[in-house]
């Protein structure tokens, strides 16, 4: 069977530029790649035909010979030049090109096209900041010291002494990667000479040893908004580690940890305070004074006959919401105290009270009534 015209195979004109040839080849190679055409028995032959056409037309000498003599230029050794027969020799390299296009994005690789190394972004940093509950309530501005990397002032972040420009790495020609042939496949790895940067500094800056950044402790002013909780994260864009050789800086993340309070317990925007009251106040009723998180005081009326665990709500005396204008409530929980270290007179009064208060303990009466019913049911 006669061979098809290489220009027809790639679907291009005879005046196509090198870039147009390359673009057409990659499109056709993807279209006929065997891995994408498992149901097409002719795909492998078409794929090889596309590679053969590309091997000839991408080379100026081979293309000139083909334009003059056609397919006969490569028969019987005529015009073979560097590549010999177009269907042989560099198939693995051609397959590697297609492999890059098919899987380069997924693998995080690819040739990029420009050959210029990308600037390396600096790492993000984390800073753990503890604040008091009072600070979380009101909000506060704090100054923190963060050990980090900053651009070197001596070389302006280039890593080169006296402002000299970095040079292209001779090992990878600026690609940042090198390739090694292993059988049918081409393995790509980070260039060992420039560590993937694509450039080298022949005369490195003495201050930063060519890194373009130096270690330094910085002081930052951080605004802590009212309503923060443990686990709240604050992001300071561009305040992280400096990029390598002029790359952008990372971000600084501040993680908030709110200390436990000795008076208040927090649940979201609400606060809880356990307040002890005397047995006399709980029985007769009265007013008590309780603290609030803003440093103030509130008077609370205790109803007569209050029991331990009873809660009373103070509206809008809790924590502010981190987002929005809402404010939580404060809950007072009564803890009725049993008096200790009684005097003789006090004991006498308590005995008289006990003897005359059999009907004044509703919770106790209810409990023992249930106990009596339980015992009777067990007997029957």
UniProtKB/TrEMBL annotation:
<feature type="binding site">
    <location>
        <position position="205"/>
    </location>
    <ligand>
        <name>Zn(2+) 1</name>
    </ligand>
</feature>
<dbReference type="InterPro" id="IPR001305">
    <property type="entry name" value="HSP_DnaJ_Cys-rich_dom"/>
</dbReference>
<feature type="repeat" description="CXXCXGXG motif">
    <location>
        <begin position="152"/>
        <end position="159"/>
    </location>
</feature>
<keyword id="KW-0863">Zinc-finger</keyword>
<comment type="similarity">
    <text>Belongs to the DnaJ family.</text>
</comment>
<feature type="repeat" description="CXXCXGXG motif">
    <location>
        <begin position="191"/>
        <end position="198"/>
    </location>
</feature>
<feature type="zinc finger region" description="CR-type">
    <location>
        <begin position="139"/>
        <end position="217"/>
    </location>
</feature>
<dbReference type="InterPro" id="IPR036869">
    <property type="entry name" value="J_dom_sf"/>
</dbReference>
<comment type="function">
    <text>Participates actively in the response to hyperosmotic and heat shock by preventing the aggregation of stress-denatured proteins and by disaggregating proteins, also in an autonomous, DnaK-independent fashion. Unfolded proteins bind initially to DnaJ; upon interaction with the DnaJ-bound protein, DnaK hydrolyzes its bound ATP, resulting in the formation of a stable complex. GrpE releases ADP from DnaK; ATP binding to DnaK triggers the release of the substrate protein, thus completing the reaction cycle.</text>
</comment>
<feature type="binding site">
    <location>
        <position position="172"/>
    </location>
    <ligand>
        <name>Zn(2+) 2</name>
    </ligand>
</feature>
<dbReference type="InterPro" id="IPR018253">
    <property type="entry name" value="DnaJ_domain_CS"/>
</dbReference>
<dbReference type="GO" id="GO:0009408">
    <property type="term" value="P:response to heat"/>
</dbReference>
<dbReference type="Pfam" id="PF00226">
    <property type="entry name" value="DnaJ"/>
</dbReference>
<comment type="subunit">
    <text>Homodimer.</text>
</comment>
<dbReference type="InterPro" id="IPR008971">
    <property type="entry name" value="HSP40/DnaJ_pept-bd"/>
</dbReference>
<dbReference type="InterPro" id="IPR012724">
    <property type="entry name" value="DnaJ"/>
</dbReference>
<keyword id="KW-0346">Stress response</keyword>
<feature type="binding site">
    <location>
        <position position="152"/>
    </location>
    <ligand>
        <name>Zn(2+) 1</name>
    </ligand>
</feature>
<keyword id="KW-0143">Chaperone</keyword>
<feature type="repeat" description="CXXCXGXG motif">
    <location>
        <begin position="205"/>
        <end position="212"/>
    </location>
</feature>
<keyword id="KW-0479">Metal-binding</keyword>
<dbReference type="GO" id="GO:0008270">
    <property type="term" value="F:zinc ion binding"/>
</dbReference>
<feature type="binding site">
    <location>
        <position position="191"/>
    </location>
    <ligand>
        <name>Zn(2+) 2</name>
    </ligand>
</feature>
<keyword id="KW-0963">Cytoplasm</keyword>
<dbReference type="Pfam" id="PF01556">
    <property type="entry name" value="DnaJ_C"/>
</dbReference>
<keyword id="KW-0677">Repeat</keyword>
<feature type="binding site">
    <location>
        <position position="155"/>
    </location>
    <ligand>
        <name>Zn(2+) 1</name>
    </ligand>
</feature>
<protein>
    <recommendedName>
        <fullName>Chaperone protein DnaJ</fullName>
    </recommendedName>
</protein>
<dbReference type="InterPro" id="IPR001623">
    <property type="entry name" value="DnaJ_domain"/>
</dbReference>
<feature type="repeat" description="CXXCXGXG motif">
    <location>
        <begin position="169"/>
        <end position="176"/>
    </location>
</feature>
<dbReference type="GO" id="GO:0005524">
    <property type="term" value="F:ATP binding"/>
</dbReference>
<dbReference type="Pfam" id="PF00684">
    <property type="entry name" value="DnaJ_CXXCXGXG"/>
</dbReference>
<feature type="domain" description="CR-type">
    <location>
        <begin position="139"/>
        <end position="217"/>
    </location>
</feature>
<dbReference type="GO" id="GO:0042026">
    <property type="term" value="P:protein refolding"/>
</dbReference>
<feature type="domain" description="J">
    <location>
        <begin position="5"/>
        <end position="70"/>
    </location>
</feature>
<feature type="binding site">
    <location>
        <position position="194"/>
    </location>
    <ligand>
        <name>Zn(2+) 2</name>
    </ligand>
</feature>
<dbReference type="InterPro" id="IPR036410">
    <property type="entry name" value="HSP_DnaJ_Cys-rich_dom_sf"/>
</dbReference>
<dbReference type="GO" id="GO:0051082">
    <property type="term" value="F:unfolded protein binding"/>
</dbReference>
<keyword id="KW-0235">DNA replication</keyword>
<dbReference type="GO" id="GO:0005737">
    <property type="term" value="C:cytoplasm"/>
</dbReference>
<keyword id="KW-0862">Zinc</keyword>
<dbReference type="GO" id="GO:0031072">
    <property type="term" value="F:heat shock protein binding"/>
</dbReference>
